[in-house]
């Protein structure tokens, strides 16, 4: 089976603040893209190494070995899930940063480190820490696209404008800013709803659909699982799956079509396969407000999503949620 060449888009997920859902977004965006059939490499440049924990993998070798010991990057990548690989971080990177900062090409170290494997992936997604460290600046330099999760709080707008200033300073312009993802969003508070409107008024089409507050998301990372594994029926799973669909569309990502080679019993020349492979299914299907479905609690239109094998029908206005398993029990 042959696949078309992969584009190797490099995405830095960043914000100057910590604790606002960067790692959660990296894990569940990447896992969703991988479920759709994309080949994804995660790169952790935060010495806290949260990505390994959130994915429940222990990496024998990390970015430290690549940057400090000149190890081959391909030898330091750990497989985390099907289609999902990880170049992990560890605490040694914290100590190494002052030395890395002395090197003449200090700002291009991560870009150089991932170059040999770039064409093997559709997406390389870098999880940044919460400040402008040497490694975070490296991530910004390496990135073709910047994705910024942000909480929906009174100071979020100020934080975003500071980040945009930094992007202009580091990259010469903010044109690589591709998406702003509202996280920890609580649609029950009027303040959050108003602030989301303000964000949309300021940043327009860069603002994605929000990720609502959902405790299942933190429980999932504590268990080392993605939200689709831990609770595919949760609001967190529905929201992240919807984000995966939205960003896939923005990035015009479609699963490379496998070419079916001719066999002796079927001498038809190689043609693109007619049926998409199982993994090409959307993580979310049929998002929308079907007119026939209204919420039994508040009467608003219901949303529908298909998440990792479940059909989820939910209300954006209140807590109502219903889910049915589409096919067979999950493991
Ligand atoms: N939508 C959400 N709802 C509830 N908890 C969340 C949500 N997103 C993130 N969290 C939790 O908030 C904390 C900080 O999130 P994390 O992704 O680690 O942020 P960052 O990487 O920006 O420091 C974690 O405990 C995480 O599980
Ligand atoms: Mg983090």
Helicity level: 25-40%
> In which order are the strands of the major sheet placed?
3-4-2-5-1-6-7
- How many E strands? 12
Order of helix and strand elements from N to C terminus: EHEHHEEHHEHEHEHHHHEEEEE
Tally of DSSP helical segments: 11
Give the termini distance in whole angstroms.
Answer: 28 Å
Number of domains: 1
- CATH structural architecture: 3-Layer(aba) Sandwich
CATH domain class: Alpha Beta
Overall structural class, as computed from helix and strand content, comes to alpha/beta
Instruction: Please mark out the parts with pLDDT under 50 across 5 or more consecutive residues, or reply none.
Output: 258-280, 285-291, 327-331
| The CATH H-level homologous superfamily | P-loop containing nucleotide triphosphate hydrolases
Rg (CA only): 21 Å
Q: Please indicate the percent range of residues in DSSP E strands (runs of 2 or more).
A: 15-25%
Sketch the major β-sheet: 7 strands, mixed
Global morphology: globular
Present as ligands are: adenosine-5'-diphosphate, magnesium ion
Q: What is the CATH topology descriptor? A: Rossmann fold
Oligomer state of the chains in this structure: single chain
Tell me, rounded to a whole number, the average pLDDT: 86
């Amino acid at each position: 089976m042959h696949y078309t060449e992969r584009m190797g888009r490099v995405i830095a997920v960043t914000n100057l603040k910590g604790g606002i859902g960067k790692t959660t977004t990296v894990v569940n965006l990447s896992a969703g893209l991988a479920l759709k059939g994309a080949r994804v490499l995660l790169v952790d440049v935060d010495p806290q190494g949260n990505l390994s924990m959130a994915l429940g993998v222990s990496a024998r070798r990390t970015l430290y070995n690549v940057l400090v010991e000149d190890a081959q990057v391909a030898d330091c990548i750990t497989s985390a899930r099907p289609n999902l690989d990880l170049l992990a971080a560890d605490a040694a990177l914290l100590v190494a940063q002052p030395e890395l900062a002395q090197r003449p090409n200090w700002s291009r170290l991560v870009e150089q480190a991932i170059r040999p494997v770039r064409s093997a992936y559709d997406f390389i997604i870098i999880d940044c820490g919460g400040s402008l460290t040497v490694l975070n600046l490296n991530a910004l330099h390496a990135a073709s696209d910047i994705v910024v999760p942000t909480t929906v709080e009174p100071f979020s707008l100020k934080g975003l404008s500071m980040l945009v200033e930094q992007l202009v300073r580091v990259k010469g312009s903010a044109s690589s800013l591709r998406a702003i993802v509202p996280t920890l969003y609580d649609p029950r508070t009027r303040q959050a709803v108003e602030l989301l409107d303000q964000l949309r008024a300021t940043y327009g089409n860069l603002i994605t659909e929000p990720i609502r507050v959902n405790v299942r998301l933190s429980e999932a990372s504590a268990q080392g699982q993605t939200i689709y594994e831990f609770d595919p029926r949760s609001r967190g799973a529905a929201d992240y799956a919807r984000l995966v669909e939205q960003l896939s569309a923005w990035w015009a990502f479609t699963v490379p079509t496998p070419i079916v080679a001719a066999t002796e019993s079927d001498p038809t020349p190689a043609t693109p396969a007619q049926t998409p492979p199982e993994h090409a299914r959307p993580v979310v299907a049929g998002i929308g407000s079907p007119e026939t479905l209204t919420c039994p609690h508040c009467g608003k239109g219901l949303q529908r999503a298909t998440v990792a094998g479940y059909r989820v029908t939910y209300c954006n206005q209140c807590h109502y949620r219903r889910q049915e398993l589409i096919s067979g029990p999950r493991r």
